[in-house]
Predict the structure.
Amino acid sequence: MKILITGAAGQLGRALVEELGRRDQEVVATDLPELDISDREEVARLLSAERPAVVINAAAATRVDDLEADPDLALKVNALGPRNLAVACRRLGAKLVQVSTDYVFDGTKAGPYVEWDETGPRSVYGLSKLLGEAFVREQCPDHFIVRTAWLYGLPGPNFINAILARAKAGKELLVVDDQRGTPTSTLALAPQILALAETQAFGTYHATCQGEATWYEFALLIMARAGLDAKVRPCTTQEFPRPAPRPANSVLENRLLQLEGLDLMPSWQEAYNRFWDLYGEQL
């Protein structure tokens, strides 16, 4: 079974390619400049030439704050890109895995979000990803939409890189303590996506590590594993304003994975410890 990965140079794309390599699976790894998913003709041409059985779209515009000032980029990559892949996959009879985000929700729910909760994005990024989901559902029946949150991996950039850079520079860390979510390792998410793609259980899924934390609590674990003693001070979202609104609650429950008996995700602490053991010296 040939699997084509878009965004293969990014955090999740790299983890997927490495996981497929360990399985001796045939993989086509693509990224810019050889494939721009916002180019409809380019997508059709490459997929027709490669004829993959599965396409996993790990390509996205993810600089959330920058996208508030550049909605066209967000819509081209995060909405029209998935549409182009979905149309090509439908014509080929290929499965499509579209990676989405907690930002499709407004973050006001008291408990974890399940797959059928009402969406309500508050940022350009969240809206563009929600439109991407809609295009995939509309254009490709054999699809998996996989929403994840607080994702980290190599090569970054991500929250871990930012925390370690400031700590190593001897700066005090001001970290938000009123946003909750689940730090999710690409090392954990990649096998989960591949397990889902092997099935015919098409639909929308949440896939994050288990449990929840605030950014401040995550920062404390990062500092502890790195053996750093820089001062970490909790703050509120209001004390750390950003151009794009963040959901106060980004906790996703893997409800449909659990119902399908497919939930492979470890706790967020276990996942981070494994990530650090493997890659800590590179960070």
Remarks:
- Residues 71-92 form the longest helix (22 residues).
